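Deliverable D5.2: sample structural annotation.
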Amino acid sequence: MKKIVVTLIISAFFFSLGFSWYVWDHFVNRPASDSKEEVIFEVAPGKSFKAVAKELEIKGLVKSSELFTLFARIKNEGGKIKVGEYLLTKNMTPSGVMAVITSGKSIERKITISEGLSIYEIADIFEQAEISKREDFLKLVQDPELIKSLIGEGYRSLEGYLFPETYSFTKYTGIKAIVTEMVKKFQAVYKEIEPAASKVPLSKHQIVTLASIIEKETGAPQERPMISSVFHNRLDKGMRLQTDPTIIYGKALQSQKIEIKISKTDITTPTEYNTYVIKGLPPGPIANPGKEALLAAVSPAQSDYLFFVSQNDGTHIFSKDYGAHQKAVGKFQVDPKSRQGKSWRDLSKKKSQN
């Protein structure tokens, strides 16, 4: 009788063990579904592993949250999950799911900052992309401690030092980290132009300021060196730069936004950025220039030009004297026929047609 009982117990044990192994193997090595449907799964800060496992089950990514939790304990993986946003598919095995959510390799997003945008315009882009609230971004880039730590100077803001580029980030990348990366990119690019920068009688901050003005005045990239030459020539002669974008930026310091339209009153109203009133360069950049504008600032074309006026298509007419300049203004700005139906956007249209 005892032998029978022992035999039954042993049989039950091995049956239980075999059944457990079957269940375990069926769970661990087989996906929850045959579907290739992609699911964006988020591991939020402070979320427990049990809560994560339950959400995985609800979304059809694992068959059982309890078995997935047990699997994590056996593999000692429960404490290794990382905050992030992950791309999973319903035909992944539990071990595959575990590998992803413990990798820390979150879904990457991208944002492009174009040349010539100001901090106010970048703030709008970051808010629209849900990276940062506008006011939080502006507060950060005007934080004296951050400015000092990143560029070693006590400037008003990081204007001019947020390099225009396409940046990758994740949902949980902080805005400070992105701003820091932008400044580091600027520093790397500026290092490339330092040999040329050392040959012009301007400080680094003045070079960045001039480059930002060149960037804002240029619709045609090939004109940057020539526009730079005009500004260098005017600076050498002690002439006022008289550039509209500086007036616009001076107004933005008050309104915290860029307003393109300017009036006669704006031109005559003194501000530290109004280059129709002040001599020389304004106290800081008015936008964030790209590499080509920085190069143009330190490597201007050789010319005797002192004036330029828009032809309303992104290009300019350059003049050596005021009389010739006035004729160009009359032709391209005063005469409404020369402006009708024209825009700097026409320049990009011509390029696409060629």
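Annotation notes: The first strand starts at residue 38 and ends at 43. Residues 211 and 293 are 5 Å apart (CA to CA).
The annotation will be released with the project's public dataset once the embargo ends.
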